Amino acid sequence: MRKAIVGLLVLALVGALGFWGLTSPATYALIRSNDPVSPTLPAGSTRQPNLENGRTLFFAGGCTSCHAVPSQTDKLRLGGGYALKSPFGTFHIPNISPHKQDGIGSWSTADFVRAMREGVSPDGRHYYPAFPYTSYQRMNPEDLADLFAFIMTLAPVEGRAPDHELPFPYNVRRGLGLWKLAFLDGQVFRPDATKSTSWNRGAYLVNGPGHCAECHSERNAAGAIIGDRRFAGGPDPEGRGTVPNITPHPSGIGGWTADDLTTLLKTGETPNFDTVGGPMGAVVANTAQLPDADRRAMAEYLLSLPPRQGFKKPE
């Protein structure tokens, strides 16, 4: 009996050590460090950030939609506080203003790039993928450096969001290391040489900073996007009905022209003279700030997607 108990204790210890090792942010970084398509900024880089590019990426990413202080008219006050409800609990969106204590004002550019591409905080904690780093990982480090530089030009905002309200086991943050090994591939966007420059620009904006698939796709039980349902719509993450299909299927944007979709991204108007509302209204408030060429590039890419039957809510 004593030997059996000792054996069980040894197995438990080995299991605990294995869990601790596999879930470490360092383990994920080590695995991805050998990936040639997972670049970082060169150490000691003296590259000067492009603030205009950073501004474009800021609005392409819709940073104000989640991180602006709720009920404020100034959407550039990025004090956070929005409560994002999900099947896993409620996430309270953090302050990403340049405030040195409450925001990200004390971060380095490398801290920001790592957070956006690996979902890891400067102090080495996993971020929950409610922060869509699964899409932001597609961005190249130079663009992320520009985005960070632009955010640092905004006003610091005092105050921190409350802690997330998550039940067990989702409140075990360490377990996200296993989730990342399964669902975070660490790859940046790679242009398709057979496509046009504008198509590649649209693909980059939609899949990277725009993170369009994060809302417009069905997810599996672990909360990861189902590959063959990408962009085909799905349940609203906050439980408010469904999110529409944005593939060129009759149940989505089939029959739309590039002009139709470009107009929607600028004004919110649909081809049938309706206007988008809800969360998509906030998206349009951001995409309206983009150059016309970027909106058209996004439209070109979306209309080239494989048509997929839209999500149907179970009856």
Describe this protein's structure.
By secondary structure, the chain is mostly helical. Helices cover 38% and strands 4% of the residues. It is built from 12 helices and 4 strands. The strands form 2 sheets. It has a two-stranded antiparallel ribbon with strand order 1-2. A two-stranded antiparallel sheet has the order 3-4. Mean pLDDT is 88; it is low at 15-20.
Set out the fold topology.
Blueprint: H1 2-22, H2 25-32, H3 51-60, H4 63-67, E1 83-86, E2 89-92, H5 109-118, H6 133-136, H7 141-151, H8 176-183, H9 197-207, E3 234-235, E4 242-243, H10 258-267, H11 278-287, H12 292-302
Antiparallel strand pairs: 1-2, 3-4
Helix pairs in contact: 3-7, 5-7, 9-12, 10-11, 10-12
How would you state the average pLDDT, rounded?
Answer: 88
The percent of residues in helical segments reads: 25-40%
Order of helices and strands: HHHHEEHHHHHEEHHH
Taking Cα atoms only, what radius of gyration do you get, to the nearest Å? 21 Å
Placed side by side, the strands forming the largest sheet appear as 1-2
Tell me how many strands there are: 4
Give the gist of this structure.
With 315 residues, the protein is mainly alpha-helical. The protein is built from twelve helices and four strands; from the N terminus they run H-H-H-H-E-E-H-H-H-H-H-E-E-H-H-H.
